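Quick one: structure for this chain?
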Amino acid sequence: MITPEHLPDRIRGDYQWIMHQLTKYDEKYLGEKKYFSSNDGRYDYLMSSKLEATLFRIRRNTAVKVAEKLFYIWSVLDEEFRSS
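Got it. Here's what it folds into:
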């Protein structure tokens, strides 16, 4: 997994922002946790991951911003690779 320490300083903030935006929600819909919760944890596997839940609920504007920042990070990394 990539951590901010693997990246150049100028894109670390963007990477952290993306990771926050992509793991913002714990459940796809309000009440999902309550519906699948049990004392023994036997239904825990039915819960969506934070990434899956967030992608299900993310707004279009946020998704566009994430995509733009991902492209920016890629372009910076490509530039760094070509210059080395």
